[in-house]
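Task card 7
Instruction: Convert sequence to structure tokens.
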Amino acid sequence: MQKTKTVAKRTWHFSHPIGRFSVSGNGFSCPTSVAIAPGGILYVVNGGDRVGAPISKLTIDEEFLGDFGAEEFTWQSGIALDKDGNVYCADAYDHFVAIYSADGERMGQWGEAGSKEGQFRAPAGLAFDSEDNLLVVDGLNGRVQKFTKDGQFLSGWGAPGSDDGQLSRPWGITIDQNGDVYVADWGNDRVQKFSPEGRFLLSFGSTIADGGQLDHPSDVAVDSEGDVYVTDWGNNRVQIYFPDGDIITGLYGDARIFSKWAQEYIDALPDYIKAYQRVDPTEWIEMGRFYRPGGIAIDDEDRIIVTDGIRCRLQVYTKDKDYLVPQFNL
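Output:
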């Protein structure tokens, strides 16, 4: 049954889950980041101990297309796609950005450890701007740096701290239609918004009890109407805000059915089938919730993909711009 939520003249439908736990092949190991290519092609970063490779390629309809990057990262983190469809992935431990073709062929890498311009200390989130320059969240240096695609330093902003414009172990990043930049300021429990040049505009994730509080936000994305989605890692939810930072609502996870891959796996194991038949129906609600959601991405159809880390799956929502609320209640 489709789960629907309508708030502030906006409607979201839960679509389907993707994946299951697996250390190789068609599944995930603690997925942390996701990027979407045209045609519903997903690239997912596996954060756990994965035998196959840290980056999985699949379709949004759960067709497995392969893994790549085996033994080429120590601590893979953010992922982004350039205009040519090439895949960029950061290594937060070895302080570099690796480049792959859309088919997973390694094309090179750049970056080195340090705190000077152009150097990294735990690079995390990645995002390309309209000019196809790459913005890199430089986590332990508390800043954002901008590079050409081949790694030439262009500019940067930010410093460690908690004041406006300062960052504490930032992680995810996204860029809206106006070129403004949103950064998930993990250590400060907030999201900060900057101009394309890095000028501080606003922050949100309030500490007052208005429903908009954040606990270690890990990633951020913006839909076609400018609404801002934040994976609220510590609170096991996705918070949705107006562009000015006012809270709209939250998504808490609705995967109360198995994904295709999970169902195939369970169907092959009679003991698993018997075990799930004994599960109390009320427990299915809890099993469908997010548990440490990490990454989030939104495509041009406003399909929202969330990496549900500990549960080793993705959850997919759609935003419905033409939905009419029924004039009756059940």
